[in-house]
Amino acid sequence: MNAPEDWPEPIIRVQALSESGIPAIPNRYIKRESDRPISDDVADDVNIPLIDFSGLIDNGKDNQDLVSETMNKISEACREWGFFQIVNHGVKPELMDRAREVWREFFHLPTEVKQSYANSPKTYEGYGSRLGVEKGAVLDWSDYYFLHYLPPHLKDHNKWPAQPHSSREVNEEYLGEVVKLGGRLMKIFSINLGLEEDQLQDAFGGNGEDIGVCLRVNFYPKCPQPDLTLGLSSHSDPGGMTLLLPDPHVAGLQVRRDGKWVTVKPAPHAFIVNIGDQIQVLSNAIYKSVEHRVIVNPNAERVSLACFYNPRGDQLIGPVKDLIGEEACPLYQPMTFDEYRLFIRLRGPSGKSQVESLKSPR
């Protein structure tokens, strides 16, 4: 099963539709009734856990109680939610702001500049407007930009936008810092699971530059009928872990919990962290990836940066043996990450259907 060289239909940029002033969205973006965002299934009185990470950066040697408390909060969030926010994480607030703003500037460049980076379903790298290659599929109300950071042989600065000025340098610095943060979190996840601190990272393919790290920048334009569509359909992330830099002024991310959708309220200069399918598989479902989606807004655009911290593409991923007890059995069949992620690249977001399909027959 290979990705095709090109899209099955001409690409329409959602931003162009939005800026044209259309009063109603085209039928291609109207979700079936059961998938539309409705107020009855939204829980507005809760939020995902918010965790102060500073105890693991500044005070680790001086205050073991604080370290234990923070580690426990992360463990509980991974087991109970699959999502959490972290603040005081060591990435400079001004770098976070600048990274978000250079991408906002990119999406407001002239169309011909953006089109020079147009992507294909073969790699998805570049400027895009759809996931999946099914002809006639219902599409999401969003544009995006996808690029590779690791491993080094996949990173090509020529495929990164050259405009606005300094954007490549800003993205290089930003992704370097986010990768460091991802490495710290991997150690914490591993220790909290009762493993050696590098065991999960080793399962990803090693501690060096052999893992996969990529960035998807999401641009959600204003939408005249936000009750009929979604910016990103319900899905769980196919990779290992996602570190999301949200728009601080426009909420949009919703997480499924107990049959309701929780609208995430971003804390200032926080990263939203979520468990992906690969960590669910490695942990034998002790940690679970969770369905999430994005709603859109009639009055404001929204920009977010999702950094995906993934296993090496050819790495075979299956439950870690140390997490399978004598009476338990592995829940999932091993599969390489390259094989796994091809599912979403061909079919688009599809809830948790892919990870569920991996379950070993009983």
UniProtKB/TrEMBL annotation:
SUPFAM superfamilies to which the protein is assigned, alphabetical: Clavaminate synthase-like
Catalysed reactions, as listed in the record: jasmonate + 2-oxoglutarate + O2 = (1R,2R)-12-hydroxyjasmonate + succinate + CO2
Domain Fe2OG dioxygenase intervals: 210-311
InterPro entries: DIOX_N (IPR026992), IPNS-like_FE2OG_OXY (IPR044861), IPNS-like_sf (IPR027443), Oxoglu/Fe-dep_dioxygenase_dom (IPR005123), Plant_2OG-oxidoreductases (IPR050295)
Alphabetical keyword list: Dioxygenase, Iron, Jasmonic acid signaling pathway, Metal-binding, Oxidoreductase, Plant defense
Pfam families: 2OG-FeII_Oxy, DIOX_N
Cofactor section: L-ascorbate; Fe(2+)
Family, similarity comment: Belongs to the iron/ascorbate-dependent oxidoreductase family.
PANTHER family hit by this protein: OXOGLUTARATE/IRON-DEPENDENT DIOXYGENASE
Protein name as it appears in the record: Leucoanthocyanidin dioxygenase
Organism in which the protein naturally occurs: Reaumuria trigyna
